[in-house]
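in:
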């Protein structure tokens, strides 16, 4: 089975599964997390199937930067840029990655503790 058939987020990119999209362009799609951990909890993902940050290549540098800048613009759009927001990329099992298609969490709208759990 190809990645696009078996991967949850590839299926969201393809429009086969519903998600509440807040932004998209030729390289990325952003949507609300189904199980939000803060008043604002978005996921920004590349259209291209990348398993994790651990498997990104030097040629993906521009795409990785674009994901972060899209997250920043979405934080602005959601009204949390000035208050503060957090971008998180969980990489592999011990860090809590559960969906193996690279995604950037954008969290905010409440005070976020540190260190993370
Ligand atoms: P991870 O744990 O891999 O860093 O993050 C995966 C995130 O994807 C979780 O926050 C989880 O709530 C979210 N998620 C899992 N399945 C779906 C889904 O079908 N739709 C949406 N919108 N979010 C999902
Ligand atoms: Zn995928």
């Amino acid at each position: 089975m190809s990645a696009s058939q078996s991967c949850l987020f590839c299926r969201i990119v393809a429009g086969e599964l519903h998600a509440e999209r807040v932004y998209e362009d030729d390289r990325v799609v952003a949507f609300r997390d189904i199980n939000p951990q803060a008043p604002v909890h978005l996921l920004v993902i590349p259209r291209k199937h990348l398993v994790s940050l651990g498997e990104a290549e030097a040629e993906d540098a521009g795409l990785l930067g674009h994901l972060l800048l899209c997250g920043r613009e979405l934080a602005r759009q959601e009204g949390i840029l000035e208050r503060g927001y957090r971008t998180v990329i969980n990489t592999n099992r011990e860090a809590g990655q559960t969906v193996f298609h690279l995604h950037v969490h954008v969290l905010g709208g409440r005070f976020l503790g540190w260190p993370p759990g």
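note: The beta strands are 21-24, 28-32, 40-46, 85-88, 104-108.
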